[in-house]
Amino acid sequence: MSTASLAPEAPVRDKDAARRLAALRTELARRGLQGFIVPLTDEHRSEYVGAYAQRLAWLTGFGGSAGSAVVLAEKAAVFTDGRYTLQVRDQVDGALYDYGDLPAAPPSAWLAGQVRAGDRIGYDPWLHTRDEVRELGALLAAKGAALVAIADNPVDAVWTDRPAPSLAPAAPHPLAHAGKAHEEKLDDIAAWLARRGDDAAILSALDSIAWTFNIRGSDVDHTPVALSYAIAKADGTADLFIAPEKLTDELRAHLGNRVALRDRDAFAAALEADYRGKRVAVDPERAVAAIFERLEAGGAVIDPVRDPAVLAKAIKNPAEIAGHDAAQLRDGAALTRFLHWIGIEGPKGTQTELSAADRLRAFRAETGALVDLSFDTISGAGPNGAIVHYRVTPETDRRIEPDMLYLVDSGGQYRDGTTDITRTLAIGTPTAEMRERFTLVLKGHIALARAIFPAGTSGGQLDTLARRALWERGLDYAHGTGHGVGSFLSVHEGPQRIATFGGSTEPLRPGMICSNEPGYYKTGGYGIRIENLVLVEERAIAGAEKPMLGLRTLSFVPIDRALVEVSLLSPEERDWLDAYHAETLRRVAPLVPEEVQGWLRAACAPIG
């Protein structure tokens, strides 16, 4: 057992953060800059990035998956959303950085209050969108300051042991899992370009490239993508810019003669040299400012429009749906084995967050099909469960003990699908408050799972269903209720979301997969979240005057009956829970050992 199995009282912070911040300030002064912006992203605008692009974590010590920092000569600030409110304060020293809570306190507002006339604030054009640059540039100009593009990132200049980008081989994604050949996808993009009068489309998002060309890689932890760029053309051909070291004979044969293979390092020059007078589709949300700048410098005409792979990728085809069903069931059996195990070992007080996460990974690995986790397991005991995107480390590893709640949010990457599921467990005896709050979250989960809605409805319109029971008690949670999920791709996939913020206006369409994950978090006490994945499907409603849709649950793992306050459930909610557990028992029991089957029957018994 870790000697740090009891969480430390003091925050866990990077001891080198002050030295690194000072080194960056020295570098900025050398370049005549009064500030620099450090986003947590890469040149593909990825959510999860390779080690080489973890500039924010290296500089500040913040280990979350979303955030940014602004460094000035005498002040600095780090900005995160509600998922990381607690984590950022534990990991980033408040003596070095102010804390900005998004979206209420964005970097632009903080900068506006700090800059002086004549200041030059630097940014890396390969890490920001064009709209971000325009907005911030106008704001600084109003203050008499200037936003300055920097050709080589100053963080990289002082990060002396920065890892190199991965050169791991890329591989074909089999048609049996993809459901559609990459040649057909290129034809679809060509037809789309023809309708728009465009000559080419830039694909810079890694998951769009992976999906379009039916390739996968291992260049980013937990997301099976390959570092690359692509340009799809109106004649149905494409250029794929990828490091030569990543190519294999199998991949070359898979891509065929319609895909020209070019070095990834040649991408920027190709934008400037190859498209003079051509009309090029570029996604303002997913493509960085440097792409627009290089195309315009070369005389291209920009058509600012969403990447054509985004929506097509989100609407799963029958092969992808079948793969998801298989992956969710396989994964559910592994998690069920874990719940049986933690139910025995948890009350003994001999396990920690790390040892439990390791055991869960082992159960998934024993399926023989696990490629990777889909994200770092959120294994939160007691108060650590209240940190929405908590990431356990040896320094924060807390013992799992009786009379606490344990939250485990986890998922796997399998070649036929990507999983993401959260369960909250009572270790020992839960309090009345824990049972009440858990049941309110469960009511929200059930409300969304049972939703029937007209075609054209957005996730933003459904979000309140999951919050209503909490709102009626004056409670809420500071994250979205649902995100899209890829097919052996990104665990967070757009364009659909179920949330009341962040532009959740995309209509839900049949074939889309989302998470259903309301929660509640008591700072310093415990966290609760119940998450399943759901598939948007058509619903036949007698007498309906318009097409109707609903959600089919894909995840089957018991929900902890010890945390359910039955008196708070309506008859319809009790019926849903009993039916869900009956289906879980039917599907999962044949896939788990006999000793787990007995536990599963009890865990799936009618709620009464």
Automatic annotation (TrEMBL):
User: Where in the numbering of this chain does the Creatinase N-terminal domain appear?
Assistant: 20-147
A cellular component term, taken from the record's GO annotations: cytoplasm
Q: Does the keyword Metal-binding apply?
A: yes
Source domain of life: Bacteria
Q: Does the keyword Nuclease apply?
A: no
An example Pfam family from this entry, by short name, is Peptidase_M24
Recorded E.C. number(s)? 3.4.11.9
Residues in Peptidase M24 C-terminal domain copies:
547-607
Q: InterPro entries, alphabetically?
A: Creatin/AminoP/Spt16_N, Creatinase/aminopeptidase-like, Creatinase_N, Pept_M24, Pept_M24B, Peptidase_M24_C, X-Pro_aminopeptidase_P
Q: Which UniProt keywords apply?
A: Aminopeptidase, Hydrolase, Metal-binding, Protease
Coiled-coil spans are: none
Q: Where is the Peptidase M24 domain?
A: 326-538
For this protein, what is any one GO molecular function term? metal ion binding
Q: What family is reported?
A: Belongs to the peptidase M24B family.
- Protein name, as recorded: Xaa-Pro aminopeptidase
What organism does the record attribute this protein to? Sphingobium jiangsuense
